[in-house]
From TrEMBL, chain A:
Part of the binding-protein-dependent transport system for phosphate; probably responsible for the translocation of the substrate across the membrane. Residues 87-312 form the ABC transmembrane type-1 domain. The chain crosses the membrane at residues 28-52, 86-112, 124-147, 172-195, 291-316. Residues 1-23 are annotated as: Disordered. It comes from Kineosporia babensis. Coiled coil: none annotated. GO terms for biological process: phosphate ion transport. GO terms for cellular component: plasma membrane. Its main location: membrane. Signal peptide: none annotated. Keywords: Cell membrane, Membrane, Phosphate transport, Transmembrane, Transmembrane helix, Transport. It is a multi-pass membrane protein. This is Phosphate transport system permease protein. It is found in: Cell membrane.
TrEMBL record, chain B:
GO terms for cellular component: plasma membrane. Keywords: Cell membrane, Membrane, Phosphate transport, Transmembrane, Transmembrane helix, Transport. It holds the Pfam family BPD_transp_1. This is Phosphate transport system permease protein PstA. It comes from Kineosporia babensis. InterPro entries: MetI-like, MetI-like_sf, Phosphate_PstA, Phosphate_transprt_permease.
TrEMBL record, chain C:
Belongs to the PstS family. It comes from Kineosporia babensis. Residues 26-45 have a biased composition (Low complexity). Phosphate binds at residues 51-53, 81, 99, 193-195. InterPro entries: ABC_phos-bd_PstS, PBP_domain, Phosphate-bind_PstS. One of its GO terms (cellular component) is ATP-binding cassette (ABC) transporter complex. GO terms for molecular function: phosphate ion binding. The keyword Transport applies. NCBIfam families: 3a0107s03. GO terms for biological process: phosphate ion transmembrane transport. Residues 26-53 are annotated as: Disordered. This is Phosphate-binding protein. It comes from the Bacteria. The gene is pstS. Transmembrane segments: none annotated.
């Protein structure tokens, strides 16, 4: 550090002004950066505090077990609500979406960075980026009005042949969790692809060339150099995608039908996620205790996505420790 | 494929060393096929959605009134009017959101990468993670209680922007952070070694190097918030007339225009909501292209 | 070196935005000059929110009102009755549209009418019935036209107790009609809705032993599939053979769905503007003075009366808005209540409010100050 200071004094010789600008600039700039960081902290605490302060009174009034009772009766006269059904649909639809989207996204990212001819790579990447430019409400109306009719045959077939598994049991509803999962997968595909692509592209060419020089095929080079380098990035990208799938509101609300009282574990049933439950009822938030019940559901969603993110973070940190 | 099979069959008995080699070649080919197929699968929905939206929505856009008129005085059953009010509303809201969210997001990322050490940095990073998980509808409810219940203001476009800012900040922070981390430390050290102050190093060396990546992140964030419907449902009641004041009155936006007409089955409304969907996609695409041009110019000047 | 290019791009974008700004127009009435409607035109902005059931009706009224008053803008945000009332009380909007009148008993420790009075600076808020519409029982059974149902069978169908269309109970009401054995798929509103509330009020009012649930905005049944908004349930029925739902009339006709006849005890009644109008004509005013809360006789056995109707109220302050808003509210409501406007509503699937009630509504509007 002292040598650096020495240099700057040397530089400052022609005009003493310059160095002081640097120091003042540093203080202002650093202050702005730190201030922004603190602002974000305060913001999240405010959101969290608000969620808790709204959820707690409703939870205290709740006559049912919030975590285990499968009811949702929120009336002005009395409140009995629990979240297991919401939790199930939220997690299952998002996991299904991940199972579909992550492998495709990683392969697409590899295509864009390692396979596609140079001239094609950037327009092709742009095409995939465009998927992110499609708003969720458009995914919703496309998924339900245009895409759904093409999936009914496949869904019926699955229900007929694999109906013995609880997950694929018939009969097939109109707006199913299965359909929502496919649409969610398409929605999170560009997010996962874009970040994976950026990370893969940053693989040091020395690693790649090293692998190739040792006689590795292109796939072996990717497996030994590109993928290990990109794994933390892919994981964080997947988690961002999962977060979006868990919290996606409007598309799920438009696509999936609801079926209170006749809950089925099948992907071919309807159901409500945390977010679509809130959205379906947001127009009628009459009294504060009623809103509280939905905020409590929102809080659970919040905690869920947080756990996912935290897990991702742990994985990334451990990876880093290995690679360094 | 046939040549491939021949390859695997003929040299196999010749030498034991060749066998793993051909297996490796097959694997390599399979990987290539899988990768190309995946790309095709990824492109199908895009083409399909674009085809749907264009074929159903282009009719509305071809009418010049679409770009100059509002929906004032038009009912779901009558043909006519335009989306001007909603286009301008969406642009205004996106601009305000970006103006607030991008500086906060970029500075937070700079803090995390360049300044942050110790407990505060960990807290900030942790909070950004939490913010990533805030569903849009909860962000909207938070702003609702803040803006309406606590302060007693009316629901206006600016309140929508505040909710959108909450959603955009983590996207900008994470993408910027990722890009700043990829800037080689050698560049920073070289700059310090030349006696350039830290803030100037960040402004002149680090940020320009990461610029295209940051722009991509900002655009992804904008694409997300421009299409968000949930905050508009709670905080941004739609209007059929033009309103350019974000602090007073109801302001239209394209997502609410789609959502409002989606409820209708008559042809006039059907054409209009697909038209609005196409317009929204075109707007986001235009932003994307602009972003790409900026990053290209930036590369040239480097 | 890169800055000028940024600046250039930004200024191009700005110029584009300005060009767009300069040419926007709110005038959709065609000929440019629209001030032909005497000198009584008003100006300003009026915001309303609430019931989605009346959306198509109030949109008609707003359209013709804006054509007559080029400087006035009326916005109506169809989010649902509950939200409309909530935002009216919170002073977010100038009037609310609601499928049920303001409640005068305590809910959650607060009384809606008291809260509304507080919002109106101490003056009561009035419920003014301005839109009336029948709720259709829409079904999808190719080849079956003019299906007849009575409240008891309808209740059992909607609760999932009757599972197939050729059930003897349905067949008994439809002699001579060939009913398929298709399974019945019930669609209901998954969002809280005034339509759900009114439909249940009808069922529990006309078949209390078959429909035991307390009417509310939430659907209590456990059979079938819930979908959001009127369009959602109508689309559901349209897509599933054997589907049935309750929905505002216009959605049934727009989707070309079959509409069931209702037999309340005096023979099957087809849903028409006239038969629904009869049920409304029999409605009685339950409110006091200018508060025109109506009560409907759902169990009516009057011949030729279609009994499943709902009324949407505009809820306004009787006093207490500032002068400009008051003028605008009165002018708009007058226009809404006029025979001319009410006459245009039938095409959109509504029934005109009966003359007797219309007169009372007009008196009430005049009394707003």
């Amino acid at each position: 550090m002292s040598t650096i200071t020495g240099h700057s004094e040397l530089d400052a010789e022609p005009s003493g002004d310059k160095a002081s600008t640097g120091r003042r600039g540093d203080r202002i700039f650093g202050g702005l950066a730190t201030g922004s960081g603190i602002f974000v902290v305060v913001l999240v605490i405010a959101v969290g505090g608000f969620l808790l302060s709204q959820a707690v009174p409703a939870l205290l009034k709740n006559d049912a077990n919030f975590l285990f009772d499968r009811v949702w009766e929120v009336n002005d006269s009395g409140m009995r609500f629990g979240i297991p059904d919401l939790l199930y649909v939220t997690v299952v639809s998002s996991l299904m979406a991940m199972i579909i989207a992550v492998p495709i996204a990683v392969l697409v990212a590899l295509f864009l960075t390692q396979y596609a001819p140079k001239r094609l790579a950037s327009p092709a990447a742009y095409l995939v980026d465009l998927l992110a430019a499609v708003p969720s409400i458009v995914y919703g109306i496309w998924g339900f009005y245009v895409f759904r009719p093409y999936t009914t045959g496949f869904q019926d077939w699955l229900a007929e042949h694999f109906g013995w598994t609880v997950l694929l049991e018939g009969p097939v509803s109109l707006g199913t969790v299965f359909l929502a999962s496919i649409v969610l997968a398409i929605m999170i595909l560009p997010i996962i692809t874009a970040i994976s692509r950026e990370v893969f592209a940053q693989t040091p060419s020395t690693h790649k060339e090293g692998a190739l020089a040792l006689g590795a095929t292109r796939w072996e080079m990717i497996r030994t150099a590109v993928i290990p380098f990109g794994t933390p990035g892919v994981i964080s990208a997947s988690m961002l995608g999962l977060g979006r799938a868990l919290g996606e509101t409007v598309a799920v609300m438009i696509i999936v039908g609801t079926n209170p009282g006749i809950f089925r574990f099948s992907l071919f049933a309807g159901g409500e996620t945390f977010a679509s439950k809130i959205a379906n009822n947001s127009a009628e938030f009459g009294s504060s205790s009623k809103v509280g019940a939905f905020i409590a559901a929102g809080l659970m969603l919040f905690i869920l996505t947080f756990l996912v993110n935290a897990a991702a973070r742990v994985i990334i940190e451990r990876r880093k420790a290995f690679s360094e | 494929m046939s040549t491939l099979t021949q390859d695997t069959v003929s040299p196999a008995p010749a030498s034991p060393i060749d066998k793993p080699n051909t297996m490796r070649a097959v694997k390599d080919k399979l990987a290539t096929v899988a990768v190309y197929t995946a790309f095709l699968i990824a492109v199908i929905p895009l083409v399909w959605i674009l085809y749907t939206v264009i074929s159903k929505g282009a009719g509305a856009l071809l009418n010049p009134e679409w770009w100059t008129n509002s929906q004032r005085g038009i009912t779901a059953r009558t043909v006519g009017g335009g989306a001007y009010h909603a286009i301008i509303g969406t642009l205004i809201q996106a601009a305000i959101t970006a103006v607030i969210a991008v500086p906060i997001g970029v500075f937070t990322a700079i803090y995390l990468v360049e300044y942050g050490r110790g407990k505060l940095a960990r807290a900030v990073s942790f909070m950004v993670d939490i913010l990533t998980g805030v569903p849009s509808i909860v962000a909207a409810l938070f702003i609702y209680t803040l803006w309406v219940t606590t302060f007693g203001f009316e629901r206006v476009a600016f309140a929508v922007c505040l909710a959108l800012v909450l959603l955009m900040i983590p996207v900008v922070v994470r993408s910027t952070e990722e890009m700043l981390k990829l800037v080689p430390n050698e560049l920073r050290e070289a700059s310090y070694a030349l006696g350039v102050p830290k803030w100037k190093t960040i402004m002149k060396v680090v940020l320009p190097t990461a610029f295209s990546g940051i722009v991509t992140g900002v655009l992804l964030g904008l694409a997300r918030v421009m299409g968000e419907t949930a905050p508009l449902l709670i905080l941004g009641p739609p209007s059929k007339a033009i309103n350019m004041n974000p602090f007073e009155g109801f302001m239209a936006a394209l997502p609410t225009m789609i959502n409002g007409e989606r409820d209708q089955v008559v042809q006039a409304a059907y054409d209009r909501y697909w038209g609005a969907a196409l317009t929204l996609i075109i707007l986001v695409m235009a932003l994307n292209i602009a972003g790409r041009l900026i990053s290209r110019f930036n590369k040239v000047s480097r | 070196m890169k800055l000028p290019k940024h600046v250039a791009l930004t200024s191009v974008a700005l110029a584009g935005a300005l060009a767009l700004t300069a040419c926007g127009s709110d005038n959709n009435s065609g000929e440019g000059d629209t001030g032909s409607d005497t000198g009584s035109s008003v100006s300003g902005t009026l915001n309303g929110e609430g019931s989605s059931a009346q959306k198509n009706a109030i949109d008609e009224a707003i359209a013709s009102f804006s054509a007559n008053n080029p400087d006035a803008t009326v916005n109506y945000n169809a989010t649902g009755s509950g939200d409309g009332v909530k935002n009216f009380i919170a002073k977010q909007v100038d009037f609310a549209g609601s499928d049920s009148a303001l409640k005068d008993e305590a809910v959650d420790g607060v009384v809606e009418t008291d809260q509304a009075a507080e919002r109106c600076a101490g003056n009561p808020a009035w419920n003014l019935p301005l839109v009336a519409g029948p709720i259709a029982i829409a079904y999808n059974l190719p080849g079956v036209e003019g299906l007849t149902l009575d409240p008891t069978v309808l209740s059992e169908v909607m609760l999932g107790k009757i599972k197939n269309w050729n059930d003897p109970k349905i067949a008994a009401l439809n002699e001579g009609v060939e009913l398929p054995s298709t399974a019945i798929s019930v669609f209901f509103r998954s969002d809280e809705s005034g339509t759900t509330d009114n439909f249940q009020k009808y069922l529990s009012g006309s078949a209390p032993e078959a429909w035991t649930a307390e009417p509310s905005k939430v659907w209590p049944g456990t059979a079938g599939e819930g979908r959001t908004k009127s369009d959602g349930v109508a689309q559901g029925v349209k897509n599933v053979e054997g589907g049935i739902t309750y929905v505002e009339w216009s959605y049934a006709t727009d989707n070309q769905l079959g509409v069931a006849q209702i037999d309340n005890g005096a023979g099957a009644v087809e849903l028409t503007g006239e038969s629904a109008g009869k049920a409304l004509a029999a409605a009685e005013v339950a409110g006091e003075g200018n508060d025109l809360k109506l009560s409907l006789d759902y169990a009516t056995k009057e011949a030729g009366t279609y009994p499943i109707v709902m009324v949407t109220y505009e809820i306004v302050c009787s006093k207490g808005l500032d002068a400009d808003k008051t003028t605008l509210v009165k002018s708009f409501l007058k226009h809404f209540a006029s025979d001319e406007t009410q006459g245009t509503l039938e095409e959109a699937g509504f029934a005109p409010i009966p003359a007797e009630i219309a007169t009372k509504v007009n008196t009430a509007i005049d009394a707003i100050s």
